[in-house]
Amino acid sequence: MIHENAWTTYTKKDLTALEKISKDYKDFLDKGKTERECTELLVEMAEKSGYVNLDEVIKKGQKLGQGSKIYAVNMGKAVMMLNIGKDIIGDGMNVLGAHIDSPRLDLKQNPLYEETEIGYFNTHYYGGIKKYQYVAIPLALHGVVVKPDGTKITINIGEKDDDPVFFVSDLLIHLADQQMKKVAAHVVEGEDLDIIVGTKPLKGGSKKKSVKEALLKLLKDEYDIEEDDFISAEIEAVPAGRARDAGLDRSMILAYGHDDRCCAYPSALAMMDVDNPSTTSCGLFVDKEEIGSVGATGMESHFFEDVMREVLDLMGIYSEINLSRCFRNSRMLSSDVNAAFDPIYKDYFEKQNASKLGRGLVFCKFTGSRGKSGSNDANAEYLGELRRIMDKHKVVYQTAELGKVDIGGGGTIAYILSLYGMQVIDSGLAVFSMHAPWEAISKADLYEAYKGYKAFLIEA
Question: Which top CATH class is 104-239?
Fold first, then answer.
């Protein structure tokens, strides 16, 4: 069902299902503002649906086979789910891959300092952001502090109604003449994105650092955190506040982290809702995509391969040639967002090939930039098969590129999985204000993504 506005196709039953998924998704966003929190939520979903931790299967010496449902966690920041079908070698897998990290501000390893009786946390921004968008908005702190003895302290400050929030200050307009003449990339510099965390001095403290001393005392008394503990901490500053319905008609959701949790959540939901698939279903939910998919928890790590080696071994069919055949016979939807056509900025889009809110699941044949640099370019045969599947299951979908050819571009994890020889294409939701502290999606597109991902797992 291409070239349709999804809202015009819905029955009352569809609208009820759409609102249920939207409500649950907003709850997922509110609870999962970091990759660690998303991992915990995804594991919870998996276990409720009968998935078993691969580590436990290995520990108990159990075997895997058709009907087995397992998950594996990578360092608490990435998850892989597998629902094993009839012939994992000959049929390969139907893979849904999304990332669960989002742009944000990370606290540095030695973050706390005082300047003119103001306490600050020094930050280093993560991923592609417009730095000026992070000033003068309420921020929350999420993350973990790990002490030398292994004790882990979970941090979540700024989300409850009675929690304090944090912020980065901005220069008042009355004094901003020179600032306003700067190009946008330098209106706010990265080293100026320091978060204000307090102004109250410690009674009887030193004259130069009494605010810092008061903050250290508070951290020790309330959270059992000492200054050196920040060395072994991962704390993220993210926009504070809940995901909200947007528009008078409540047709949209405004929230932090749609990129790429609006693809991760319906992918996980589809994995939960497909039972006993003929072809093995695989869900990949990875970290570090926003900085190039690097590191031990990104898609470029060997986690995917290593888990598959363990699985094939527990099935009694492991060999390197079987692993290669499994990958080569697989298909993947690299589930990541696309830039929604915005009439306010129409000069940056090629309208005929731009994704639009409400037009359903987006298929992007290639990403990259300019002359398709750095992209995976999906095969026509694969697109033809996907069209058949989407039409059969009455999924509303569209095709799109990411902006005009010479304007810029972007990438996803698609090219990494394509290296295994599997068929891969980007698919996801159209997003307004991508990478801003608050992004917007259509509820209809979220619903169609769920339908499309589920159809793919059943039919591909």
Answer: mainly beta
